[in-house]
Design a protein that fits this description.
The chain is mostly beta strands. The chain contains no helices and eleven strands.
Length: about 120
């Protein structure tokens, strides 16, 4: 099982950014995928998760009005659209295989992609 997160870069406050998580193998369309982030010195923070079917997306309260999770099983990909970015969104963003709001609900993780938001 491999997951690769990409799309992170440096942006200005108020900008939008889309992250991608691509999974290898046939398992992808049968599992949920979630996004988390981790800033230096902080715990890994749940952002959003989506079931294998695309149903029942979960969002953290802190991002639910700005971030949107979606998936394309034909491309083995899950996306995180982030709008109105703030400096406090700066972190390393990870995708994981699973579904839920805690890291313990995820069995595999990608390597992370850095998002830096400047004011």
């Amino acid at each position: 099982v491999q997951l690769r997160a990409s799309g992170g870069r440096s942006v200005q406050a108020g900008d939008s950014l889309s992250l991608s998580c691509v999974g290898s193998g046939r398992w992808f369309s049968s599992y949920g995928v979630g996004w988390f982030r981790q800033a230096p010195g902080k715990d890994r923070e749940f952002l959003a998760a989506i079931k294998w079917s695309g149903d029942s997306p979960l969002y953290a309260d802190s991002v639910k009005d700005r971030f949107t999770i979606s998936r394309d099983n034909a491309k083995n990909a899950v996306f995180l659209q982030m709008n109105s970015l703030k400096p406090e969104d700066t972190a390393l963003y990870y995708c994981g295989r699973g579904y839920g709001t805690t890291p313990a609900r995820y069995s595999y993780w990608g390597q992370g992609t850095q998002v830096t938001v400047s004011s």
